[in-house]
Design goal:
mainly alpha, flat, transmembrane helix, transmembrane
Length: about 110
Amino acid sequence: MKNINRMNYFITGIPPILLLAGWLFASSVWMIGALLTMVTGAFHIVVGIGLCIETNGKPIYLIYLLGVALFFILWIITNWENVVYMPPILATYMSVLLFIKAKLEKL
């Protein structure tokens, strides 16, 4: 779990760094950062499903998966502007869950 937590730091941290670098230096590296956000989302979904299976559907992991499902449903049936804040919230929630799980396994 500690390695998954470290991977989460790396995968979640790279896109904002690239977006900021592209904005500061007026280069096209921001596009790579934008594309890597999809990798971050895929990683979080896979880890979320894995944790949900591993913990036999604990409610805290089910809430995350329901949030992801709600995001995609709202994205399909409404305008993008209505759900633009959900991915960062979901990424933060998954990061906190991974951090807590890694710390609990350490004990």
